[in-house]
Amino acid sequence: MKKLLISAAALAVTAGMGMAQDVVRMGTEGAYPPWNFINDDGEVDGFERELGDELCARAELECEWVTNEWDSIIPNLVSGNYDTIIAGMSITDERDEVIDFTQAYTPPDPSSYLALSMDVDVENAVIAAQTNTIQAAFVAEQGWTLVEFPTPEETIAAVRNGEADAVLADKSYLAAAAAENDDLMLLEREEQIGGGVGMGLRESDDELLETFDAAIQSMKDDGSLNALIEKWEVASTF
After folding, report:
1. Which structural domain range is residue 150 located in?
2. Are residues 126 and 54 in the same domain?
3. Hey, CA dihedral for 175, 179, 180, 183, is it positive or negative?
4. What's the pTM?
5. Does 5 have pLDDT greater than 70?
6. Which residues, if any, are the signal sequence (predicted)?
7. CATH classification at residue 141
């Protein structure tokens, strides 16, 4: 994986960023390409792996990666199984009541529908979404028929086996699935749901949050965050 170079200007910005502490455990799902996934070597890979490694380098932190299923990713952060969530998690008021967020490291990614036919009327269809996502909450709020699944792969499988008519998820995830499967197609309709994507931390970890906030800002300032977003095609740029 190609490392982003830190310019002299960025080093000057981040010189005071380091903080003395134990290894920071970076929690992710490992099942949501291109944001995060497990590669052929069994390692966490994707946009957030490259981003997280760069943030840790700029903050002079020693970090390690931990995977956790999505439906328990917030409870297991709160209970101390890892120190951050960096897993394509949109910043919402509901989540912010339980954990704290850094500033967004991507703008909001539109949510799209994936189906076997372009003729699906989503308002009168069965929509699959991953449990505890902003998309599942959106479908429920509309009063549409919702079926929820623990993993994103299962939502797509539900469309293929007839349990659902369409999947609602982040466009970047579904676009990759559509590109790899000739029988699946993105519907024209999109939804704008939630805020940008940020790192989640325990509410007690103010110093660590400030450290990652500063590292994210330094990547915005020198353009390297936009370059990374473009490389992995996860969202629009800042």
Report:
1. 111-191
2. no
3. positive
4. 0.84
5. no
6. 1-20
7. 3.40.190.10
